[in-house]
Each structure stands twice: as structure tokens, then as C-alpha cells.
Give the backbone structure.
Amino acid sequence: MTDAAKPSLRRFIDSLGGGSTMVIFIRTAVAMPGKIPQLMIYAKEMQALIKKVIGVEVAVGLRLGGNAAEVCWSANYDSLAQVQDVSTKLMTDAAYVAQLGKGADLIVAESVHDQIWLGF
């Protein structure tokens, strides 16, 4: 494929000297008042379980600016298809689904948000 035939986003990424892209999945959640330490423990437990179930290294973070009660999990993938495969595998794993329920009293209702980013 000639450079002129490449989609413009692909040409832009290539122009940055990269060419290699990844998909970054980020999930954020806000701790209930007074529950930040417990949510961080839960976040680390989820991190370990995800590694066990799907073999993916997930990073855990605590927001430094803005809402200091916000926690995130993030992981890098090769494609959107891989994100979908991982999600399906997790949601069909009984231990993962059970662990999700254990965090309900630590997280503000409707504060969980997912983002998918293109990294290069």
C-alpha cells in the first residue's frame, strides 16, 4: 500500500516515527467516602485475579489531581479484538464475577467508566 493510500490516521502515526500501535483500556471507579484504603486493597486483589485468569498485566493507579478518591485499572492490548476477547473471558469466569460483587460497597454507584485509547 502506498503512503497516499494509507488512511490519514495511520499516515499521521507513521510520521511520528512510530508505526506500532496499541489499544489502551482504562477503567476508573470512585471510592465511597472513607473507603479509599479498602478500594485500593480491592483494586490490587482484582489486579492479581485478572493476571491469573487471562495472563494480562494490569496497572492500578490512584488519581493525583481532581477527585482523589478515583482509582483506575489499565492494560495494553494489541487490538480491539483482543480487548473484546479478554472481556468475554473475564465475564465468563466465575471467580472474577464473584469478586466484582465484593467491591459494590466500596464504589460509588454509576461511577465506573471505561475508556479505550489508541497508543503509539
In short: The domain at 20-119 is CATH 3.30.70.100 (Alpha-Beta Plaits). Residues 15 and 105 are 47 Å apart (CA to CA). The beta strands are 22-30, 59-62, 70-77, 113-119.
